[in-house]
Design a protein that fits this description.
single chain; Rossmann fold; 3 domains; four-stranded antiparallel β-sheet; 12 helices; globular; binds zinc ion
Length: 331
């Protein structure tokens, strides 16, 4: 492991050397010793990823449909940086709800989407120009977009640096890119660690923070306009605290179980974390998830009531969602 750790090169800062922090779903996650960027290694091949997404990773259609105000809100937010509209590209357009919202606000829109089902829905239901393709293979001319959006997609891609290089080429000088990704430096991620809902390889392969994402964008040639963190789709503060409490209790339970002499060979990984093949009893897991679900409405109301306390945390970079606007330089 030590030799592997020394041989890894960081995508963000190019430095050699990373530390193995956890193994999650059978994938090793490393942290760059120089800039702190977190990433899965080895990166699954595009063929592995295609197989994974074919086998049922999908965001249900209704989740997009009922989020109409949010989809439109994201476009309104982007317009702070590009009020004059123009041509807009979405990478990972899904079922087309965001593009439809942008079109209704005066943008000319196009998209790419890897899921054939979602892309077909966008074409047939909304009449949108959504191509079933990776951005790197999409049929667009250089410099033809005034804006591009990529909501919770960059962390899934095989090579985020290649995606950003391509986006820079597709934007005209002065064109604006809006990115939303999970924030690995968030309060939730710090508190609950491997139980953080977005620490889920191989869906997410790259774990960005308010320092590493702008750095990768700058490397690709972008000029950074804004970096912010938000609550996003993550859990509220109190729900995170409950998850953390559960994880602590579980660690304690595993220690007690392991301290008893057993013959079933319970193992640990090389960093002392409980091994993946050491699952909890299904009944316990089920009861705990049920309890978390029942607690959610209460923690949500508590979060609403204490909103003024949480906002400063988001401003300090601790929100679960990271939002970044960047621009292709004019000169
Ligand atoms: Zn680095």
């Amino acid at each position: 492991m030590k030799q592997l750790e020394r041989s890894l090169k960081c995508l963000v800062c190019d430095a050699m050397g990373a530390r193995h922090i956890i193994t999650q779903n059978g994938h090793r996650v490393f942290r760059c010793a120089t800039c702190g960027f977190q990433f899965v290694h080895p990166t699954p091949t595009p063929a592995d990823l295609a197989r994974y997404y074919d086998q049922g990773y999908a965001v249900p259609l209704e989740r997009y449909s009922r989020n109409k105000p949010r989809n439109e809100g994201h476009i309104v937010d982007l317009e702070r940086w590009r009020p004059q509209r123009g041509r807009l590209l979405e990478i990972g357009a899904s079922y087309g709800h965001s593009l439809a919202a942008a079109r209704s606000r005066g943008w000319q829109v196009a998209g790419v989407e890897l899921s054939p089902t979602a892309a077909r829905y966008a074409r047939e239901h909304f009449g949108l120009a959504v191509f079933t393709a990776d951005l790197l293979d999409a049929p667009f001319a250089a410099g033809c977009f005034d804006a591009a959006i990529m909501w919770h997609v960059l962390e899934h891609t095989h090579n985020p640096a290649a995606q950003l290089n391509q986006l820079l080429a597709l934007l005209r000088p002065g064109g604006v890119l809006g990115l939303r990704v999970p924030n690995v430096a968030s309060f939730g991620a710090r508190l609950v660690g491997r139980s953080w809902v977005w620490m889920n390889p191989p869906a997410h392969l790259w774990y960005f923070s308010p320092t590493t994402l702008p750095r990768l964008l700058a490397r690709a040639g972008f000029e950074i306009l804004e970096v912010a963190t938000l609550r996003g789709d993550g859990n509220n503060f109190y729900q995170h605290a409950l998850i953390a409490l559960g994880a602590r209790l579980n660690t304690l339970r595993r220690r007690l179980v392991r301290s008893r002499p057993t013959s079933d060979g319970l193992g640990t990984t090389d960093n002392g974390q409980p091994a993946i093949h050491d699952p909890n009893p299904p009944a316990l897991e089920h009861a705990w998830l049920g309890l978390l679900a029942r607690a959610q409405p209460f923690t949500e109301s508590l979060a609403r009531a204490t909103r003024p306390l949480v906002e400063p945390l988001e401003r300090a970079g601790w929100g679960d969602e990271l939002l970044c606007y960047a621009r292709r330089p004019c000169a």
